[in-house]
Amino acid sequence: MAYQVTEVQKALKGADYPMSGNQLAELASRNGAPDDLVDRLRKVPEVDGPNGVMKHLSGDLGGSRN
User: Alpha-carbon distance 49 to 15, whole Å?
Assistant: First the structure.
């Protein structure tokens, strides 16, 4: 599944880094992110900021959300 960068940014609004994948997933869920994005974030290792998240999601970014 591909995600728009803005979709990931909205999902992670209010993040207080560093955060683990589980923490990212919980935040995204609270922010109303789709379940598939929440599940994908759970697999991200601990990151120090949004650039780290984007790096780990790089293969899943940029696709159309039809």
Answer: 8
Largest CA distance in the chain: 32
pLDDT digits (tens, 9 = 90+) for 22-38: 999 999 999 999 999 99
CA–CA gap between residue 45 and residue 24 (Å, rounded): 10
Q: Which pLDDT does position 63 carry in this prediction?
A: 57
DSSP string computed for 1-66: --B-HHHHHHHTTT--SSB-HHHHHHHHHHTT--HHHHHHHHTSPPBSSHHHHHHHHGGGBS----
What's the pTM?
Answer: 0.88
